[in-house]
Specification:
five-stranded antiparallel sheet, 5 helices, 5 strands, alpha+beta
C-alpha cells in the first residue's frame, strides 16, 4: 500500500479548503485529468459520486505537480483527500492521498494476481467497516473505508501500470 501510514483525522473538525487551480487547464483535449474523489454520502445519493475534475494537463508530470500544489493548499488539520489522475478514457493512471502539503502516491499493482489480492483485501475492509458502523463505531468504519480506498487507488489500469511505476521512481 503506502510506505508511511496516513493518519485518519476526524472530519468533524475544520473542513478542508479546496484551492482553485489558477490556470486555463480546462482544455478537454489534454489527456490527463486531475480529479478529487467525492466520498460524501450526499454526493453518492444525489448521483454526483463521479470525481470532480480539478484541471486537465498535457503531461503526467504536470498533473502530478499540480496535485502537489493542491495539497499545499489543504489546511493542516483537514482529513486526507484522495486525488486521482485519469487519462482521457477515464482510466486510472495514478492516485494518492493529499494532506498537509504533500501527496502520498499509491504504488500501482504490478500484476493481475496482485490486483485480485488488493480487491479481496479492500472488500474485506469494507465489510469490516459495515460491521463497525452497525456496532456504533463510525470513526472505525471511516478509517476502514479510507484504508480500502487507498488499496483501490493501487488498481491502476493495466495500460498505465509500468508507466506510473516509472513516473513514481523518477519523482522520488
Amino acid at each position: 500500500m503506502l510506505d508511511l501510514p496516513l493518519p485518519i483525522l476526524p472530519t468533524s473538525g475544520p473542513r478542508c479548503f479546496v484551492p482553485p487551480i489558477p490556470s486555463g487547464d480546462t482544455d478537454p483535449n489534454h489527456p490527463f485529468a486531475l480529479t478529487l474523489s467525492r466520498p460524501a454520502p450526499a454526493d453518492l445519493m444525489s448521483g454526483r459520486a463521479a470525481p470532480l475534475v480539478l484541471a486537465r494537463f498535457a503531461t503526467l508530470a504536470e498533473a502530478m505537480q499540480r496535485a502537489i500544489d493542491h495539497a499545499e493548499g489543504i489546511t493542516p488539520n483537514a482529513a486526507p483527500q484522495l486525488l486521482a489522475i485519469l487519462d482521457r478514457d477515464e482510466r486510472l493512471v495514478l492516485a494518492g492521498a493529499a494532506s498537509d502539503h504533500a501527496v502520498a502516491w499509491c504504488h500501482p499493482v504490478t500484476s493481475a494476481a496482485e490486483a485480485r489480492g488488493v480487491v479481496a483485501e479492500a472488500s474485506q475492509l469494507r465489510a469490516q467497516a459495515g460491521r463497525a458502523a452497525a456496532w456504533g463505531e463510525p470513526d472505525l468504519a471511516r478509517r476502514l473505508r479510507h484504508r480500502a480506498d487507498l488499496l483501490d487507488a493501487r488498481l491502476v489500469d493495466p495500460l498505465w501500470r509500468a508507466f506510473a511505476a516509472r513516473a513514481l521512481q523518477v519523482a522520488a
